[in-house]
Write a structure and sequence with these properties.
This protein has two domains: about 10-70, no CATH class; about 75-250. The chain has ten helices and nine strands. The chain has helices at about 15-20, 25-30, 100-105, 110, 115-130, 170-175, 180-185, 190-200, 210-235, 240, and strands spanning about 10-15, 35, 40, 55, 60-70, 75-80, 135-140, 175-180, 240-245. Strand 2 (about 35) and strand 3 form a beta hairpin. Helix 8 (about 190-200) crosses helix 9 (about 210-235). The protein is globular. Its cofactor is Mn(2+).
Length: about 260
C-alpha cells in the first residue's frame, strides 16, 4: 500500500500444533512444549524466551499465527542510527541532540546514495504501525548497496491511543523524504489509508486483523506525518526536503 515492497510476504493462518508443527519441529523447539489447562503451549528458543511464563498457548491444539516468507539470502546486519538504548534512565544521542542527523550524514553510508532515504521510509512505516523497536536493520549481504529490508515488525499495533512521535526522528531531524513516498502518502490521506488497508485485510484467513481503533490510529498518524513534512518544507524549502531518488544515483544506475 505504501509502495515500499521491502517486507516479506505475510499471511495469517490457523496452525494445528499437534499435526503441523510438532512432527517437524527440532528437538530444541520440542523441549519447550508443555500443556496447560488441556491446551498445547510452547515458548521457543530466543533471547526473550524465558520459560513457561513467556509461552504461548493454543486453543487445545489450534493456534492463530502468521506465516512469513522465508528469505534465503544471507543478511548484513546494521545498528540503526536512531535505535534506542533499552537501558533505564539512559537516552540515545539522537534523543538529546536535535542536530543528530548532521552527525549521521558525516558517514559515507548515509551521506551518499539512498540509504538515508530508506531509513526515513522505514520510520514512516514504523510510525504508522506504532513500531518503536527498530534497533537494527538488514540489507542483502551479497549486495551491500541494496535496499533496507524491514524484517522485524512484531511490536506493532499495540496501543491505538498512543502515537510515539519519536519514531519519526529520522524524518523530522533530517527533514528529507523520497518524492515517491511523499506522493504516495498524499494519495492515502483523508481516511483512504485505513479504508484500503481494511479492504486488503478482509481477504486474510484470520480476518479481522485490526479493530476500528487501530484503523483510526493509522489515519491520525498519517495526518501528523504529513504535517511534519509540511513543517520541514516551510523551514527548508521543497527542493531540500522532497528528494527525487534519481538525483542521488549515479547516471549509469538510472533505468531508462
Amino acid at each position: 500500500i505504501l509502495g515500499f515492497r521491502r517486507t516479506p510476504l505475510t499471511v495469517g493462518r490457523y496452525l494445528n500444533l499437534q499435526t503441523e508443527v510438532i512432527p517437524v519441529a527440532s528437538s530444541r523447539l520440542l523441549d519447550t512444549f508443555f500443556n496447560k489447562d488441556n491446551n498445547t503451549c510452547f515458548y521457543g528458543k530466543c533471547y526473550y524466551c524465558k520459560g513457561k511464563e513467556s509461552g504461548v498457548c493454543a486453543q487445545k491444539t489450534t493456534l492463530e499465527g502468521t506465516i512469513v516468507l522465508w528469505i534465503s539470502h544471507k543478511m548484513q546486519l546494521y545498528r540503526h542510527p536512531w535505535g534506542r538504548t533499552y537501558i533505564d534512565n539512559k537516552l540515545a544521542k539522537w534523543e538529546t541532540d536535535s542536530k543528530f542527523c548532521d552527525k549521521v550524514l558525516q558517514t559515507d553510508m548515509y551521506k551518499l546514495g539512498i540509504r538515508l532515504l530508506d531509513i526515513i521510509d522505514t520510520s514512516v512505516f514504523d510510525y504508522i504501525i506504532g513500531n518503536a523497536d527498530r534497533h537494527h536493520y538488514e540489507t542483502f549481504h551479497e549486495f551491500p548497496d541494496s535496499m533496507v529490508i524491514m524484517l522485524d515488525n512484531g511490536k506493532s499495533f499495540g496501543n491505538p491511543y498512543h502515537d510515539e512521535y519519536s519514531i519519526l526522528a529520522p524524518l523530522y531531524q533530517c527533514c528529507k523524504i523520497r518524492q515517491s513516498t511523499y506522493d504516495q502518502l498524499k494519495m492515502l490521506k483523508n481516511g483512504i489509508l485505513s479504508k484500503v488497508l481494511e479492504a486488503v485485510l478482509l481477504f486474510d484467513p484470520i480476518s479481522p486483523i485490526l479493530n476500528k481503533f487501530h484503523l483510526r490510529a493509522i489515519d491520525r498518524r498519517l495526518h501528523q506525518l504529513l504535517t511534519t513534512i509540511d513543517n520541514c518544507v516551510k523551514e527548508q524549502g521543497m527542493p531540500n526536503v522532497i528528494i527525487s531518488e534519481e538525483k542521488l544515483i549515479p547516471e549509469k544506475h538510472v533505468e531508462t
